[in-house]
Design brief:
Shape: globular
CATH superfamily: dinb family like domain
Number of strands: 2
CATH class: Mainly Alpha
Largest sheet: 2 strands, antiparallel
Radius of gyration: 17 Å
Strand order of the largest sheet: 1-2
Number of helices: 6
Structural class: mainly alpha
CATH topology: Four Helix Bundle (Hemerythrin (Met), subunit A)
Strand content: under 5%
């Protein structure tokens, strides 16, 4: 895995999430396209929370040196990594509660994303990803190295950009007369 490609891709993807915040009011971010669906604000909170979790796994895997190095990804994870992204299917996740909290402010979302970006860039500047062979276990996809966790974090954010697009279509078509 080429960290010289993964980190810039991560930064480009998180920068999109940050820039897109300017396109919405807090009211728009909290509006659900359907009653049982997430609002865009809830998607932002999910991306921030999960990426924060992934950062913890990156740091742990870096510390583990060679622990679990022989463990493998689940075949589903291997497929995700082979295609360098999630399929365009809608996923059902039992922990995704449509009544999860809404964001308090756009500023809090922006700060959450900026903190994640800073943490990842700091970690990449100081850690030796090339010689770190330890792995930690993803709850459903097997074992990932630190570099794989970083790549997974970027793919996860990109996956949710497709969800953002679907929410945008519902939000903006509902606001236009005749649609």
């Amino acid at each position: 895995m080429d960290m010289h490609k993964v980190l810039p891709q991560f930064n480009a993807t998180i920068d999109k999430w940050i820039a897109y915040l300017d396109d919405y009011t807090l009211t728009m971010l909290c509006q659900k396209p359907r009653p049982a669906a997430w609002s865009l604000g809830q998607v932002y909170l999910h991306v921030i929370a999960d990426t924060g979790y992934f950062i913890g796994e990156i740091k742990t895997a870096l510390l583990l040196k060679n622990v679990n190095h022989e463990q493998e990804m689940h075949p589903d994870a291997k497929a995700i990594f082979a295609q360098q992204g999630f399929s365009d299917s809608l996923f059902s996740n039992p922990s995704n509660d449509p009544d999860s909290p809404q964001p308090d402010s756009k500023a809090a979302l922006r700060q959450g994303l900026l903190s994640i970006k800073e943490a990842i860039n700091q970690c990449c500047a100081t850690a030796d990803f090339y010689n770190a062979h330890g792995k930690t276990q993803h709850p459903g996809l097997g074992y990932f190295s630190a570099a794989e966790w970083l790549q997974f974090a970027e793919m996860h954010m990109r996956h949710h950009l497709r969800q953002k697009k679907r929410i945008d279509e519902a939000l903006f078509s509902a606001s236009q007369p005749g649609k």
